[in-house]
């Protein structure tokens, strides 16, 4: 067992964890933050994407102890004061989701993308989300949603 000190969604936590525990498992099983989905366990789908110190990472490939001392943001933190984040609202308004399994990872990937590039082209958006797989939508409405959120956030 090893000591983990981590801040998740603005709350500091301290737990003893197995050294091989994945960040995704820690978030889901220890903290109960089930918005972080586990879709493949191989880093192919992106459903487990979270922000680690502000950068989008696939939490199924990060050991919890690798995040020791870091700040993690999950989808649960984006809604503030009862209001959806502009990306969450844009996904809803532009039908950027169907089953919703990939949505949290897709949105957090887009948060990082728009932080680095507040006015991306369609091609830059598609390149920015290419590590996230959606099996339902065909991506067109996801791209529209990210474009709409980018316009609102500028």
Description:
The chain is an alpha+beta fold and 154 residues long. It folds into 2 domains: 2-75, Beta-grasp domain (Ubiquitin-like (UB roll), Roll); 86-153, DNA polymerase, domain 1 (Orthogonal Bundle), CATH 1.10.150.120. Helices cover 33% and strands 16% of the residues. Strands 2-1-5-3-4 form a 5-stranded mixed beta sheet, with helices on one face. The model has no long low-confidence stretch (mean pLDDT 96).
Short structural description:
The chain has helices spanning 23-30, 86-93, 103-116, 122-128, 140-153, and strands at residues 2-8, 11-17, 49-52, 55-58, 71-73. It has 154 residues and is α+β, with helices and mostly antiparallel strands.
Cross-sheet strand order for the largest sheet: 2-1-5-3-4
The Rg value, from CA coordinates, equals 15 Å
CATH fold topology of the largest domain: Ubiquitin-like (UB roll)
> Would you count the extended β strands for me?
5
Number of helical segments?
5
The name of the CATH superfamily of the largest domain reads Beta-grasp domain
Main attributes of the structure:
single chain; 154 residues; alpha+beta; Ubiquitin-like (UB roll); DNA polymerase, domain 1; 2 domains; five-stranded mixed sheet; 5 strands
């Amino acid at each position: 067992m090893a000591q983990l000190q981590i801040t998740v969604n603005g709350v500091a936590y301290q737990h003893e964890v197995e050294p091989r525990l994945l960040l995704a498992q820690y978030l889901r099983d220890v903290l109960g933050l089930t918005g972080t989905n586990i879709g493949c366990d191989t880093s192919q789908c992106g459903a487990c994407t979270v922000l680690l110190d502000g950068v989008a990472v696939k939490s199924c490939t990060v050991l919890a102890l690798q995040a020791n001392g870091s700040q993690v943001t999950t989808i649960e933190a984006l809604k503030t004061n009862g209001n959806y984040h502009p990306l969450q609202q844009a996904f809803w308004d532009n039908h950027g989701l169907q089953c919703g399994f990939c949505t949290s990872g897709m949105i957090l990937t887009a948060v990082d993308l728009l932080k680095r590039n507040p006015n991306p082209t369609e091609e830059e958006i598609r390149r920015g989300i290419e590590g996230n797989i959606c099996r339902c939508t065909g991506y067109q409405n996801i791209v529209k949603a990210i474009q709409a959120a980018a316009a609102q956030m500028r």
